[in-house]
## 1
Amino acid sequence: MQVRDSVSLCFLILFYDQNATRCILLSGTPALSRPVELFSQIQAINPLLYPDLHEYALRYCAAHQSHWGWDYKGNSNLTELNLVLEHAILIRRLKSQVLTQLPPKQRKHVFLAVEAKDAHRLNSLSAKLSDSTLQSLTGGGGKGGASSSSVVATDNGDEAKPQSSRSLIMDLWTETAVAKVKLVTSN
């Protein structure tokens, strides 16, 4: 089953949660944003803890009425919310606590053969970057290489514009990712 967005995922979890005897939500990401973003997760685990979003938002989101309606983007009483979550819902484990229970990392090198047109574009960008780097090292690129640039033709071949080494690196990085998309998704 594949869910395309977080709202659909939330409804799917809540639907299954109504029929389940247990509910466990796992995350490797700490919730550091707005308290309102925790409400659906709290509802999934214990809907009786905070049955009403508006009351929850008044207490923990510094909810206030704006010109367009209620605004739940703030935060208030965070210490209290943290204590309630720690005692009623949250089981927090640090990486250092669970690292001994995990298998060692496995790293693999997967070599991908890119298509000829992509290889040509990557080689072209790589050569421009090498030229730009050489100019900066030999003093042809200005002070400390910060303004080193390479001339790049536009897609339609009309005009050329200078391009910095940093910009060339970002273009090469982006083009490399684009060139690998089909290969990575097929493996």
## 2
Amino acid sequence: MPERKSFKITVQEFEFDLEDGNGQMIPCKLKEMTGKERDQYMNKIKNRTILNPDGKSGRIKDYNGMFSDLLVMCLYRNGEKMDEKEIQALPASTQSELFDEAQKLSRLNLSEEDIDKLKKN
């Protein structure tokens, strides 16, 4: 008989500081998206890709807002969501690192192999 599992229903968070141009630290956090938010995000990004003949996502046709579309849904500063204009003004390296962390939190960076493993467990 399979082992009984339990799942958390609390949203995961990743806390960090952003340093402004004056050396001041700004408390921030990334929050895991809810299922509804994830689905909204996935619907938004599907329009960025061109499907391969087999129906799977192929190449990206529009990169505008690619990082900020995710971050605007889960990046908070002083308890308030950051807006897209503020996020797009962040250095590209900072956006990239935050994007990677946001993907991990909401499990958006899983490979097909990872998904298969989760389905088996």
## 3
Amino acid sequence: MKLLFRARQELINIILTALPPAPGFDAHFDSRLAWPDGVAGSECAQQTIDLADQIQRHQFPIFTRANLLTADRRHLDEIQSQLESWMAQNPFHRGTNWASALEVAFRALSRIWVDYFVGSKLRAEFRAGWLHMMYLHGCHLANNLSFYFSPNKHLVGEAVALHALGLFFSGYPKAARWECPGAPG
């Protein structure tokens, strides 16, 4: 068992040292050219943007698990570094990362899981800003549900995220409405 744990720790260390600096979340993944603010509505750009969406979803299972297994602060620092970078490069409602409500939903769900597992270990001043950005994700979803564009699968994912955000922010303004997105009123 100790050998397996040591092997896992070595693999985690290799991954951490091989990572490039935080990616440019406001740029095309391959070219690193920044997306212009107006690209969000451009249909011809959508296929290229879809490639970048995978990274934008903030799925941090490797860092979250690594921290839970080792209690090594570097894993939390990496999560925080990437999230700070994303927030700085993607102001609310500006740029390509706000174009698809479903992508906003995926990001919100990933962030809820990160908060569940390691949120209390993140630095307080960072966490306050991060939670505010998560709240803004809920505001965006509530006002931009995909009723007209691919409504079946998109609406399901968006409603799930909005419901989860409603539960997560229970007691906050608007949260009760998010918790039951299909309810009248």
